[in-house]
Amino acid sequence: MKIVTSEQMRQIDRECIRRGTPGNVLMENAGRAVAEETARILEPISHKQFLVLVGPGNNGGDGLVAARYLHDWGAQVSIYLCARQPEADANLELVQQRNITCVDAAQDSDLSRFNELLAPADCVIDALFGTGKARPIEGIFAQVLDRVNQLKKKKPALVLIAIDLPSGLNADTGETDPVCPSADYTVTLAFPKPGLFRFPGAERAGILSIADIGIPNELAEDITLELITDEWAGGMLPKRPLDANKGTFGRVLAVAGSVNYIGAAYLACSGALRTGAGLVTLATASSLQPVLAAKLTETTYLPLPEAEQGIIAREAAELINQTLKSYDVLLLGCGLGQSESVSEFITSLLFQKNLPPLVLDADALNTLAQTSDWWRKLTGDAILTPHPGEMARLSGLTVAEIQSDRVGIATKYAREWQKTIVLKGAFTVVSAPDGGCRVSPFANPGLASGGTGDVLAGAIAGLLAQGLSLFDAAALGVYLHGNAGKVVKDILGDTGMVASDLPPVLPMVIKHLRETAENK
User: How many CA atoms lie within 13 A of 402 on its CB side?
Assistant: First the structure.
């Protein structure tokens, strides 16, 4: 599913109309789709009261169409016109023919009629601006939204549904006007917009759904920014042939863990195993192997020499080199620590030729950040999985600079470094060296705890070992990890969720996606 800017959306609309789909048909499709989603959310609607806030332009027209359908399906609907509609507006005429209550703000200077309509409403539909407002919201629009916001605080049960975007949310930047409402649901039209996945706007959008309004997907085929969806993920899952053996599903060598971060090795290996890798070998400091063997019974082991107890020695690189030809993927960095011996071990291992594809996390990234021109020395294929702090160290930017333009920064450095980048965080960004970019739909505070990144790195390595490309393995791993987090959150909530909750859920998520794809 492509993510399009406001200007790209306007161009797509124009091209769709040029190819023969009239604008009024697109508006009819949009309004009906919004009404259908609203009816699904609030079912049954027959005894509920809806207030539709109608602004200028297409967003207001979509609201009028949605109001008509909701009325025809039995809802009690009122409309508040915040902007003068065009002469002989067909959608307004159809509303008036049905005797739907319709109040013109120009005839309601003290907002008394608005207050009468708002007070009993079960649902307010925001059809004021959508993508069509970049300037500050003023006048009647600001007054109306302010009153809706005030009522929402006093009446939490009031449901607010935004058409395309909450009014005052910048479609491209995610910036918000002071009166931008916090929607419970946003029904975005045709394609999602970047601002829905950037803060602070993402917090105002609520639960997002994407409405098909009849625009062919091919009109957006040249756009490189995509939202990862269930449909894509289900189609990307590695095949599981009946005559398979463990070699069929690939072999992962995970170099992970140290005396202070023993759990990181467990979590990384669990992520790889639970996404279907055929064999996972853990290479770790020899004194840690007995401890981890008690937890990871399916993993094989490569005990490594130690510089001190629980810390891998530089000489371990030679031992790993002797075994690498047996593995499809090298996962490196989870919980290794940042001692001098470990840093020397990492650089000795990485800056050589003929390595298998790499998944680099945590301390592998920290070591790279201390190496000048590391991307020129790291010549093979690699997926880097930094959180914003690690990305700041790798790039020399500040965390604030990175967070202000996550897609732009990840895309820029994926091209410059010629590496696949997984920029972790809410709405994780996955960027490829060729400019392709995918965004996760998940933002889950429950995943903001120690060890969840280790599970993600392992999951990506497990998928990469099964033959997916680096970009696809990274994006699918991100999606499965985020989906597993959602499942756990739905059961436990987002407080107290821990990283070890995730691996057992990964196969359940994969099973559901596979069954959904097969039944289509």
Answer: 23
Query: Looking at the domain assignment, is residue 23 inside a domain?
Result: yes
Q: How many CA atoms lie within 13 A of 35 on its CB side?
A: 24
Do 256 and 210 lie in one domain? The reply is no
Please check whether residues 289 and 430 belong to one and the same domain. yes
For residue 277, give every residue at least 6 positions away whose Cβ sits within 8 Å of its Cβ, in sequence order, or none: 249, 250, 251, 252, 461, 462, 465, 466
Number of Cβ within 10 Å of residue 282's Cβ equals 27
List Cα–Cα distances, 455 to 63, 441, 474, 476, in angstroms. 44, 18, 13, 13
Give the separation between CA 245 and CA 231, rounded to whole angstroms. Answer: 28
250, 291: one domain: yes
Please tell me the pTM assigned to this model.
0.95
- Mean pLDDT over all residues of the chain? 96
Write down the pLDDT at residue 86.
82
- Reply yes or no on whether the pLDDT at 137 is more than 90: yes
**Using the 8-state DSSP alphabet, how is residue 255 labeled?**
E
Name the percent of the chain lying above pLDDT 70. 99
Q: Which domain holds residue 359?
A: 232-238+246-518
Does 252 lie in the same domain as 218? no
Instruction: Report the CATH number that the domain containing residue 204 is assigned in CATH.
Output: 3.40.50.10260
The conformation of residue 51, written as its DSSP 8-state character, comes to E
The full DSSP string for 463-478 is HHHTT--HHHHHHHHH
